[in-house]
Amino acid sequence: QVQLVESGGGLVHPGGSLRLSCAASGSASSIYAMGWYRRDPGKQRDLVAVIFSSGNTNYVASVKGRFTISRDNAKNTVYLQMNSLKPEDTAVYYCRAYGSGYDYWGQGTQVTVSS
Predict the structure, then answer these.
(1) Which of 82, 87, 103, 112 is at 20 to 30 A from 10, Cα to Cα?
(2) Assign residue 23 a region: left if phi > 0, alpha if psi is -120 to 50, beta otherwise?
């Protein structure tokens, strides 16, 4: 069993920055992929960014150049540095850790971008 604990959400003005963190505990010694997803009210949960154990990354087009995902394998922690935030980035952000035979989600953290 793996537990994911997210932190770093909050309220920020447009153009501001936030950094989300997601720490994995439990049997998390070799997680294949860790990523961030977000969900707007009334919508489905969509991929924002993912990083694999190899270090390869994928981003949704709308955040490329503004968001950076990174991973500390020794700490089983994934980060999402979010810069130049826009009101449309407002959502609940969820951490995900998955691989062959497992798929875990965090509880979500609210990010609100508003003036």
Answers:
(1) 103
(2) beta
